[in-house]
Amino acid sequence: MKECRQTPSNGALFHIFLKKQDSGAWSGSVTGRGIPEPIPFSSLSKMVLVLEELMDLHETLPDTQPGCRAETPDVELEILFRQNYSWQGRFRRPGDPKATTFHSVLELLILLETALEQ
Q1: What pTM did the predictor assign?
Q2: Burial of 21 (0-12, 13-18, 19+ CB in 10 A)
Q3: Is position 3 within any domain?
Q4: Helices (runs of H) and strands (runs of E) counted in the chain
Q5: Which of 32-41, 59-68, 95-104 has the lowest mean pLDDT?
Q6: pLDDT confidence of residue 6
Q7: Residue range 18-36: average pLDDT?
Q8: What is the residue range of 63's domain?
Q9: Half-sphere exposure (CA, 13 Å, Cβ side) for 90?
Q10: DSSP state, 44?
């Protein structure tokens, strides 16, 4: 199922594609506004670093939506604020109308791992 959503005007919206490695670690790629090609990451902590860098560039990225992919992302991540060296926002799994909010990067990582293991 193809799903395209608009970037919220007050935050940064990213689509996260994940795959579980044989070791149990998660890797994948991220797409979002102004990102022409998916950016790979090899762990959830590296995903955080990639997203942090993309949000630093958020003001300079072209105002274009990512192209729709044939596959649905595993997680849609909306970062609303970056305050006190942390992130606040929400994530949702496609097909689940309810978004889960988080108030720190650590809380996001715990919620993601819990959701992905279900």
Answers
A1: 0.79
A2: exposed
A3: no
A4: 2, 6
A5: 59-68
A6: 40
A7: 88
A8: 12-117
A9: 11
A10: H
The overall average pLDDT reported for the chain is 81
Residue 36, amino acid: P
Contact 75, 47 (CB under 8 A): no
Q: Is residue 2 part of a domain?
A: no
Number of separate domains in the chain:
1
Band (pLDDT 50/70/90 cuts) for residue 67 is: low
DSSP3 helix / strand / coil % (the chain, rounded to 5) = 20, 30, 45
What pLDDT score does 62 carry? 54
Tokens of 32: 């979002």
How far apart, in Å, are the Cα atoms of 107 and each of 4, 5, 32, 87? 26, 24, 22, 10
Distance CA 101, CA 77 (A): 10
